[in-house]
Amino acid sequence: MQALAELTSMQVGGVPASIQVCNTREQLIEIAKTLWASGDDWITIGGGTNLVFSQDVSNLNVIQVKTTGIEKTVLDGKQVWKIQAGVDWDELVKQTVDAGLAGIEGMSGIPGSCGASPVQNIGAYGQELSDVFLRAEFLDYESGDLVILEPKDLKFGYRDSAIKRGRTGIITWIEIELLDLEGLSRPLYSGQIAGALKSEMGKQVKLTDVRESVLALRAAKGMVLDAKDPNSVSCGSFFTNPIVSDSFARTLSSDAPRWETQEDDGLTVKLSAAWLIEQAGIGKEFSLPGSKAAISSKHALAIVNTGGATGEEIAELARFIQERVAAAFGINLVPEPNLIGFAN
């Protein structure tokens, strides 16, 4: 049987108790219900890009989601796409751009499968899944029922959702709404993309230009899966950018990157986790003595497997980063990937 290191972008993880591959929605539902009835430990894997596994996963049963298929309809004049959970996210983005439809072009290059996209409300360069999300079919672990989840049920937040916060189950498909803007993008909400395209915030540009710009920016940071780039042996951004109060943000030096956000309790500020890491004394290519886990040479926010690292080494470096940032700034960095099989 395969080790999970062979099924994940971080390339860590031992051999599980079982791996069951689901090529259809019906298989996925049947296998999940059977496994749940056994009471054994389980997890689903799509692209394996947001998971860090321990070497000891011998009691874990893996459901590998490889379902495919996209249904495209026009509903009340709106473009609605229903996508099976196993579809590769970036392939979906490419198809929308090729079709001249706007809405997710800024999320080009994000690795992983579509079924995982609502779990942490994926996003980049001014766009989030919640901007286009309509609903998802969800096999609920507690009841065993198939239910339809709408945005109000998922309670989306910044890289967050009700599923990430503990609602257990499996997404079988998602449905999104896209815009026909005659080949143009949504208004630009990313200063980086606007700058790269020599445009302005709020302007619309060609969809293809946005996609190409995003892919180039992500590649420069080692955030695009590429067999030729050792920096892509990672989970991408390892920590979310922390959101703090405006008053706290004012205590930081003026050169700290920051973006104002609006929460229910008032004005907040999103900080750059990469800046905090570097200011805490952890630079690119940093590694702990004897460890094969390291900070990317391209971006301080990515932890990479330099060759033969274990999940334990990845987790150890992540904890070290958290401790250094907490000591320097009093901020607890929250990991984006799920760490599986490690002692708390």
TrEMBL record:
Chief place where the protein resides: cytoplasm
Pathways per UniProt: Cell wall biogenesis; peptidoglycan biosynthesis
Catalytic function, reaction form: UDP-N-acetyl-alpha-D-muramate + NADP(+) = UDP-N-acetyl-3-O-(1-carboxyvinyl)-alpha-D-glucosamine + NADPH + H(+)
Cellular location(s): Cytoplasm
GO biological process terms on file: cell division; cell wall organization; peptidoglycan biosynthetic process; regulation of cell shape
UniProt GO cellular component terms: cytosol
EC annotation from Swiss-Prot or TrEMBL: 1.3.1.98
Keyword annotations of the record: Cell cycle, Cell division, Cell shape, Cell wall biogenesis/degradation, Cytoplasm, FAD, Flavoprotein, NADP, Oxidoreductase, Peptidoglycan synthesis
Top-level EC class: oxidoreductase
Every FAD-binding PCMH-type domain range: 12-181
UniProt xrefs under PROSITE patterns: FAD_PCMH
Named cofactor requirement(s): FAD
InterPro entries membership: FAD-bd_PCMH (IPR016166), FAD-bd_PCMH-like_sf (IPR036318), FAD-bd_PCMH_sub1 (IPR016167), FAD-bd_PCMH_sub2 (IPR016169), MurB (IPR003170), MurB_C (IPR011601), MurB_C_sf (IPR036635), Oxid_FAD_bind_N (IPR006094)
Pfam families registered for this protein in UniProt: FAD_binding_4, MurB_C
Gene Ontology MF: a single term: FAD binding
Record's function text: Cell wall formation.
Protein name: UDP-N-acetylmuramate dehydrogenase
Organism: freshwater metagenome
Lineage: unclassified sequences, metagenomes, ecological metagenomes
